[in-house]
């Protein structure tokens, strides 16, 4: 994973991760470099002056798409009496551009040899993640009159990096150089454009890189300004909340990804560095979080996922008719079917979540046209739930991978290998049925019934779906309830035996509405009890379970997105105080991450650490962590669409003060919401 001293800039699927000097010197196992379309286009980019590496004084990450580095020659000492200043300004926006500025502060002229060593291993992002770089094609480097061209060719799969400088340069196979003379107080500069080209296995031009010249930088700046201007405005006495909200909007802008088939429309990529592409589950949940603030993302997400919905049985891709994809990749390993992600369908929850998002989107926007447009895809998704997902025949959604070589073993959101266990720590056999997915199925059928009755002109189908949902709720509350613990099991094994650990998944059950009301209070107590709630947030697995580990990926860490849906579920069942406790803890944690919540952080108790402990390999920014403060805002303010209007029912944590959310978009036009903290949150841990 990248070190904490790395600098990251990104624009959707294109991103650069470098040292704090701006240099890139990647190894096959480090996600540093210039990446686009799941390929590393630069793995080496090292600047020297007269053969010396440079020392960083400071850097500015000006916007998500640009950064500036201030450098001097020589090694770091207590004081550097430098006679030269070197400034590197870089930006991404489809490709990569760097402006290099050198200033002579000496009283005499200087002659300088400036060089950038450049190279690329054209590693597939999966190869970097799996720490295996086994290239089967040809890597080449070609020197042209005014250009250095780096390339990789495997059949008709081609990736190229073209490097051009505005100042005359001497190009060779390993980089390019300048010999310059500077008078006292004189400066020299050049602009270096790095353009990327990608051609797929069929010879199709996936994307001809467009250099990020100044006019494109201005376009990116204008786009960001418009993105923020179009979103609701937050005025708050709680300054950290306002800054966290803005940080989330900016990071959402950075993560917007335009799939090749959408002609510029965007949806959220999942997270940097490993997941800068389209996901089913991640994109849908992010859209649910951000719907009141950025509804356009939901429309794009629904359309692209519908267009790529499964149509056949394909064991390699775990594809079934009606199934919504898990992940889409554009790199070499997917192109040559060394990985199944072209696309891969190994997600058990994306399909019901697709239906939930479609209904929620219509409730907010009134976009009936999209509901009608996606009727057949919605019916196919519902058929998948009943006909293909019930692997055991008990009326639940189960999963078991058919691609046993490269497919995902666990296909729920807790997809690490050891995330599903019995209370004795042992792992259950397959297939598995996790509890939250049954909640999603219940919610999907309930919501789809509304769509069928109101928009598809099929009241008989609506009645059928409601009856199926009611039966699912009844048997779920029977089969998943752990009597001696008074909570719902994490999962069932194929024999119906409960994976009887206490986990954060029970909060998703509240969000879905599948929990019987007489059991909801006990679930709420568990969620803010000392075993699950650390003071910063709800742990993925309760303290005291055998596999509990405060820095275990899904076995004790705190995931901000998870907590946002838990808080939303608590509000649904009327537990406003408990929801406020969770919202307060997560928003407090955000201040320690400069407003940018990571993918996950440690589950240590708040009294032990006094600050949230970073998880060592967490993605940041990550889409559903970025969406977390927005959903928590919705939850605290009680924003819900109701009969064509926006209902506001605020319940704020103590000390939050007054919050104003202005220009909330929806079918009602744009309206404002106001709230003043009046709910006193007691410390339930005492």
UniProtKB/TrEMBL annotation:
Residues 325-589 form the Mannosylglycerate hydrolase MGH1-like glycoside hydrolase domain. InterPro entries: 6-hairpin_glycosidase_sf, 6hp_glycosidase-like_sf, GDE_N_bis, MGH1-like_GH. It comes from the Bacteria. Transmembrane segments: none annotated. It holds the Pfam family GDE_N_bis. Residues 10-192 form the Putative glycogen debranching enzyme N-terminal domain. This is Glycogen debranching N-terminal domain-containing protein. It comes from Micromonospora azadirachtae.
């Amino acid at each position: 994973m990248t070190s904490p001293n790395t600098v990251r800039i990104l624009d959707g699927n294109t991103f650069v991760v470098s040292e704090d000097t701006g240099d890139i010197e990647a190894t096959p196992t480090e996600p540093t470099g210039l990446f686009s379309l799941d390929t590393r286009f630069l793995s080496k980019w090292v600047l020297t002056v007269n053969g010396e590496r440079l020392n960083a004084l400071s850097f500015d990450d000006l916007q998500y798409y640009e950064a500036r580095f201030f450098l001097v020659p020589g090694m770091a000492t207590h004081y550097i009496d430098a006679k030269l200043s070197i400034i590197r300004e870089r930006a991404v926006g489809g490709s990569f551009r760097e402006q290099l500025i050198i200033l002579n502060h000496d009283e005499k002229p200087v002659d300088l040899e400036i060089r950038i060593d450049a190279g690329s291993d054209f590693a597939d992002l999966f190869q970097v993640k799996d720490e295996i770089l086994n290239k089967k094609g040809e890597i080449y480097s070609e020197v042209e009159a005014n250009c250095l061209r780096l390339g990789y060719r495997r059949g008709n799969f081609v990736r190229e990096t073209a490097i051009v400088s505005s100042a005359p340069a001497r190009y060779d196979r390993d980089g390019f150089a300048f010999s310059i003379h500077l008078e006292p107080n004189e400066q020299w500069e050049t602009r270096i454009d790095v353009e990327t080209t990608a051609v797929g296995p069929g010879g199709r031009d996936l994307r001809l890189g467009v250099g990020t010249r100044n006019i494109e930088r201005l376009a990116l700046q204008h786009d960001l300004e418009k993105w923020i201007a179009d979103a609701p405005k937050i005025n708050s006495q709680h300054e950290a909340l306002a800054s966290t909200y803005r940080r989330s909007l900016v990071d959402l802008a950075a993560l917007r990804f335009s799939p090749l088939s959408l002609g510029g429309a965007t949806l959220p990529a999942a997270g940097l560095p490993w997941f800068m592409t389209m996901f089913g589950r991640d994109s849908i949940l992010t859209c649910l979080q951000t719907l009141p603030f950025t509804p356009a993302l939901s429309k794009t997400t629904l359309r692209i996922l519908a267009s790529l919905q499964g149509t056949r049985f394909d064991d390699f891709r775990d594809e079934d008719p009606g199934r919504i994809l898990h992940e889409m990749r554009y790199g070499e390993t997917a192109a040559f079917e060394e990985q199944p992600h072209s696309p891969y369908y190994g997600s058990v929850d994306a399909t019901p979540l697709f239906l939930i998002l479609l209904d929620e989107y219509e409730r907010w926007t009134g976009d009936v046209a999209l509901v009608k447009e996606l009727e057949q895809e919605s019916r196919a998704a519902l058929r998948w739930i009943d006909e293909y997902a019930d692997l055991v025949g008990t009326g639940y959604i189960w999963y078991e991978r058919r691609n046993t070589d490269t497919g995902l073993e666990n296909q729920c959101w807790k997809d690490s290998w050891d995330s599903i266990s019995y209370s004795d720590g042992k792992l259950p056999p397959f297939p598995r049925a996790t509890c939250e997915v049954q909640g999603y199925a219940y919610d999907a059928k309930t919501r789809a019934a509304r769509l069928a009755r109101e928009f598809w002109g099929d009241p008989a189908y609506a009645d059928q779906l409601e009856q199926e949902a009611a039966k699912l709720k009844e048997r779920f509350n029977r089969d998943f309830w752990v009597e001696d613990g008074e909570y719902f099991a994490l999962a069932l094994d194929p024999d119906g035996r409960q994976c009887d650990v206490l986990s954060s998944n029970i909060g998703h059950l509240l969000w879905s509405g599948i929990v019987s009301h007489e059991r909801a209070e006990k679930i709420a107590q568990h969620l803010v009890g000392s075993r699950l709630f650390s003071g910063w947030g709800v742990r993925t697995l309760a303290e005291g379970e055998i596999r509990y580990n405060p820095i275990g990926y899904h076995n004790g860490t705190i995931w901000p997105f998870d907590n946002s849906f838990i808080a939303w579920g608590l509000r649904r069942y009327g537990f406003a105080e408990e929801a406020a406790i969770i919202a307060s803890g997560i928003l407090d944690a955000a201040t320690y991450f400069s407003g940018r919540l990571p993918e996950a952080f440690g589950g240590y108790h708040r009294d032990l650490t006094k600050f949230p402990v970073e998880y060592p390999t967490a993605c940041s920014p990550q889409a559903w962590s970025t969406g977390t403060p927005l959903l928590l805002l919705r939850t605290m303010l009680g924003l819900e669409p109701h009969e064509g209007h926006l209902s506001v029912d605020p319940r704020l944590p103590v000390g939050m003060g007054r919050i104003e959310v202005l220009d909330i978009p929806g079918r009602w036009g744009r309206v404002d919401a106001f709230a003043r903290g009046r709910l006193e949150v007691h410390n339930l841990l005492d």
